[in-house]
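Service request form, structural biology core

Requester: graduate student, group of Dr. S.
Request type: structure prediction, single chain
Budget code: on file
Notes: please return the result as structure tokens.

Sequence provided:
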Amino acid sequence: MSQQPSGHSSYTDPVRYPQTAAPAVRTKRAFILLLLTLVLPGSAQVVAGDRRLGRRALMVTFTVWAVAVAAIVLAVTNRALLINILTHGWASFLIMVVLAVLAVGWGLLFLNTLRIIRPPLLQRNVRPLVAACLALLMIATSGSLAYGAYLLNVSRQTFGSIFSSGPSLDPVGGRYNFLLMGGDAGEDRTGLRPDSISMISIDAKTGKPVTFSIPRNFQNAQFPADSPLHEVYPDGYNCGDECIINSLYQTVTENYADLYPGSDDPGAEAMMDAVSGTLGLEVQAYVIVDMRGFEQLVDAMGGVTVNSGGWVPITAGEIPGTNRHYPPDGWIPPGTQTLDGYHALWYARSREFVTDYHRIARQQCVQQAMIKQMDPATLLTRFQAIASAGEEIVETDLPQDQLGSFVDLALKAKGQPMERMTIGPPDFGSAADNFVTYPDFDLIRSRVQEFLAGTEAEPAPAPAEEAAPEAAPVEEAAPAEEAAPAEAAPDAGTDGEAADGTAISEVPQEETEITVEYLQYLAEIGDDATLGALLNNNGECSAG
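Core staff response, request fulfilled:
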């Protein structure tokens, strides 16, 4: 026989002794105890169960609240420090363990609350409802904490595999300068060739970003005086058409790796030196994105939304023994659309029928669209897929200990327009010139400095006479795979001239509008001139 309290009023207390209460009161009591366990874990035990357990649970609850308030204050006053704590190896491990323990503890408190509720005392039709609410609350609370611990574990593994353990970086001239390369190491290529080369300069205080894009076929890239390659190439990377800048990575990896002792990636170090010497800005770190895995990353994000200005071909395989390709495997139409990984990859890498500068503009657009789309909702719902893709395709020498500062800068940059300059058309010369063998490096460096100085205001267009020396024609031809459009191409739907010089006498009247069928027809007959004119706007793009 159970002991009863001496006081009659205590015995009739429906909260602690529900057996004396009416059925409606018992039902109300059950939901109140669940609510107490949700909003103030431990309070249900204090008022209706094991007071000792409840007081201990309340101490933990108040401690967690204090830590949460401190984290909020830190997020407002020093967000970079908070992110550094969350991304630090041992600190994140400790937080992960604490989250896991809290998840188990909160779940046990809910089960203890169920015992206090004493379901047999409830009406039969109420019991399933109480059980369902309990299950939902446990999933929302313990499940959320457990998921948070899981995300921290995934991020720890990802950050550990991607980022380096090197020394922290200090801003140069108030800016951080990072080299971003899109590497292509396909089966038909020898080694890795970074076909996408951009230097991203970020204001260390405001986070305002500026991107300088360098064409893959840029020649005579310069090296700073303190670069080990300056002795090898004192006049720049100038061995002819073979020495376009995207070949430097593999050249150094194979032949001059000893010039960068202790480096995990001598080719990347060499590319940093080349971009530094060319732009006159010190590049501090690099990020390489494997273009073969870029498709996986975009799919992990749920696609990327862009507003495309013109048609973009999906390049087919190369015709054996020639420098031409079979007709495209498909076409990406103009307009606002969400591209999956496959189409986003081709949108960023296609240069068939146009110049490399059209492709650079599209690459800049895709980069900006991905930054815009990488919001907290996307990260939370797709974090595992994004982290897994990033671990597979990203290589960098950015120090992990400084990750918080860089994430903080990225968050600041997210809401600001991306200022862009291309070391080539349209900022230097015109697309018809394709590229310049002997660039005016003094002009490039002065324009870069002027551009950085003017990023706080609306940038003024460069005078035509100032750009003229950069665009001067040269006797060397562009690399064979680069197909530049003719300056005077026939209008769409009119007679033209095929690539081999044969006159085109018939164009189906029903296909005179720009359609996939018409574009494919032009590709099949080899009318590169008309295609070049029709696709000349495919470098126009904005983030959707």
